[in-house]
Amino acid sequence: MPEFSAMEPFDEQLEAVEDYRQQARGFLARSWVYLREDDLHQASEKGWGAAAWMAKAVAEAQGWQYRRHDYFFQVMRLCQELSGDDRVRAFTNTANSLHGFFYIRKRLLAPITIADNLSDVEVFLDTLEPLTALEGQAAD
Question: How does pLDDT run across 113-126, given as a tens digit for each residue?
């Protein structure tokens, strides 16, 4: 069992932000694997997860609450205001569409649509990542 030492709050916050960022990137990478394997439901859900976890990273870095699914939309509105990037609204809708695809019968899903949405999620993560920097820190 690993030993844990007392950390400063900043260190805990920095660690949480990094964990969320890494999980977001991991989910996105896995979504492409699922798409290649023709597992469209998992590809879609992991694409959604990538967006949601990067939103958690931003929320943690900015000191915003993100405790439930519906917080995603509030955080995204704040991200759009903070970044000044009008694409955030469209990316938010794309991510939410991916989440919705999980509940649609496979024969009604189009792999090309999911691929296009996953490409948008890649840009979305790149757009949000600078907002994960803590004061005095730079995002990777």
Answer: 999 999 999 999 99
Q: How far apart are CA 104 and CA 1, in angstroms?
A: 42
Handedness of CA 49, 64, 75, 72 (dihedral sign): positive
How many separate domains does the chain show?
1
CATH code of residue 105: 1.20.120.330
Does residue 67 fall inside a structural domain?
yes
Measured distance CA(121)–CA(4) in Å, rounded: 35
Tell me whether residue 2 is in a domain.
no
Domain range for 69 = 9-132
Residue 88 lies in a domain: yes
Residue among 53, 71, 65, 117 at smallest CA distance from 91? 117
pLDDT tens digit sequence for 27-45: 999 999 999 999 999 999 9
Q: In the chain, where does DSSP find H-type helix?
A: 9-36, 40-62, 71-83, 87-101, 111-128
Between CA 24 and CA 52, with CA 71 as vertex, the angle to 5 degrees is 10
Q: Do residues 38 and 111 make contact, with C-beta atoms less than 8 angstroms apart?
A: yes
